[in-house]
Amino acid sequence: MKDPSDTVLRLTNTIDIVLKLKACTSDYGSERLTIGSCVLPPSSAGRQPPPMRLLNPKTLIALLLLLGSATTTLSSTGQQEVERDDLEISQAAYKSGDFTAALDAARRAALLDPNRGNAAAARALGSLGAWPPAESAARAALAVASTPDNALLLAWTLQQQDQPEAALAEIERAMVKAPAHAILEREAALLLLKLGQPEPALRLLTNTMGAGQQVDPGVLGLILAALPDGRGDAVEQLHKALETNASSVVPVLLLRRELGTLLSDLGRTADAVGHLQWTYDQSPQDSDLAYRLALAYRELGQADDARAMLEEFQRLRSTEDQRDAAQRSTGAALNEAQELAASDQLDDALSKIDTVLAAYPSSFSAHALRAKVLYSQRKIEQALVAIRKARDLRPGLVEFHYLEGLFARTAGSTDDARLALERALSLDPNLAEAHAILGGILLESGEAQASLEHFDRAIELGASGEQIERARRLALERSGVSPQ
Questions:
Q1: HEC string for 311-364
Q2: Which residues are CB-contacts of 173 (< 8 A; sequence separation ≥ 6)?
Q3: How far, CA to CA in Å, does 403 sit from each of 100, 386, 434?
């Protein structure tokens, strides 16, 4: 039987693997490369292959916290027709996976209904991986309507930014206003578990049951599994979640993985192996599962199965190591390309980037860097093609939308530039450069008042210089507004 502390470690050390898209910055030195590029992170320390890497459900808990608020549906009652249509458009686009269109419609809806419009925008932004703007939108919704749904939404955005304490604080504030709210208590319990506090998590769910409300058996099982004297009851709850399909938020795949791991830790290998094998069949690239299955089959005396799984584990780990080495090599190559570009060796930089793309055509970092180098070479149309590839690969990175707008503006594609800049400002309303360029486009198209608003916002955000001041004065003149 395994040490009970192993389970606690499993539940507290590996949580942030799921659904993380992180914006990154770089150290470009060339003024012509306007905004920092997004490149692969520096090589990390070599991974030490443990003789036994205990699995799981930190991945699970992160997913549960996501599901708890991300699946909250939009309502549409009692608002004006235009706003209601925008909410419906946003909801339909969100369900179809077109998160950019969902965001655009949500921003329009927020003008008339700041609560539901901002909440819809937060969901779309989160789904695009734009977490700080998602948090801002969620806070705006909560400021208008202090509801449990909005508190959960804000907590979701905070948790995705590695701020579990702040997420828990928001839910606890909501619990004061909405006591005995089962979903708030469940999410608070999961956050407490993530923070390594299973005892108060269990007390919360006990309170929920004491109030006569049902508790998710899968969640209860996870919490019990983290308590040294609760693992037997944890097995019972996880079985209940599987057998009755009673768990509302824990996917079957993750239930069976945790149950198999827990049974194995309890020395019930014969009971565990079926769950582990089923989970591995659904996730055949998981080296941890392969290793655990090898140990389980060896313990059961099934030497051939044990040998096969051990070979599979070694193959998978070798593949992972090769992938990690390739990522480090790619990151180094892109960093070298950055340095070449910064020193105006643009042809050499482009050659190095193209070598990376030949091996990794889906590297959004390489496409973005290639776009900037091409733009510096005044190959604007080619730069547009490259930045659009980067944008398609990572639609939640505001930089790519901004650069597309900048490049399209330079190419004379005014309509494309306007759309791209509007998308950039939907992701980040505080991007001064986008306001300034969009203001210029609007001024040229005869929309003087709208252009003035963007110029004013750009200056408020820190943009300066004779060019923008001159453009603002022209907008004032054409809009008929008296100078302040």
A1: HHHHHHHHHHHHHHHHHHHHHHHHHHHHHHHHCCCHHHHHHHHHHHHHHCCCCH
A2: 151
A3: 17, 11, 9
Residue 224 · residue 243 · CB < 8 Å = no
Which residues lie closer than 8 Å to 377 by C-beta, 6 or more apart? Answer: 346, 350
- Rounded to the nearest integer, the mean pLDDT of the chain is 83
Q: For residue 332, count other CB atoms closer than 10 A to its CB.
A: 14
Over the stretch 300-358, which tens digit does the pLDDT of each residue have?
999 999 999 999 999 999 999 998 898 898 899 999 999 999 999 999 999 999 999 99
The pLDDT assigned to 104 comes to 86
Q: Residue 375 to residues 11, 144, 391, 408, 441: CA-CA distances in angstroms?
A: 48, 43, 16, 11, 20
Q: Is the pTM of this model over 0.85?
A: no
Q: Give pLDDT, residue 287.
A: 93
Give CA separation, 166 vs 49, 101, 126, 173, 188, in Å: 33, 30, 17, 11, 11
- Specify the higher pLDDT residue, 134 or 36: 134
DSSP string, 267-297: T-HHHHHHHHHHHHHH-TT-HHHHHHHHHHH
- What is the SS3 assignment for 248? coil
Give ranges for CATH 1.25.40.10 in the chain: 57-214, 321-479
Distance CA 449, CA 442 (A): 9
CATH (residue range 321-479): 1.25.40.10
Displacement of CA 167 from its chain's centroid (Å): 15
Task: Give dist(CA 148, CA 167) in Å, integer.
Answer: 13
* Structure-model confidence comparison of residues 60 and 85, the more confident one: 85
Domain 57-214: which CATH class? mainly alpha
Alpha carbon of residue 228 to chain centroid = 33
Which of 22-36, 252-266, 419-433 is least confident? 22-36
Mean pLDDT of 106-131: 93
The span from the CA of 150 to the CA of 185, in Å, is: 15
**CA geometry: angle at 458 spanning 456 and 459, to 5°?**
65
Among residues 359, 412, 370, which one has the least CA distance to residue 38?
370
Is the per-residue pLDDT at 82 higher than 60? no
Residue 299 has which token pair?
A: 């313990």
Mean pLDDT confidence for 58-78: 43
Cβ atoms 137, 122 nearer than 8 A: yes
* Number of helical H runs and strand E runs in the chain: 24, 0
Rounded to whole angstroms, what are the CA distances from 462 to 37, 85, 323, 417? 21, 36, 42, 22
Give me the amino acid identity at 290: A
Longest dimension (CA), the chain: 88
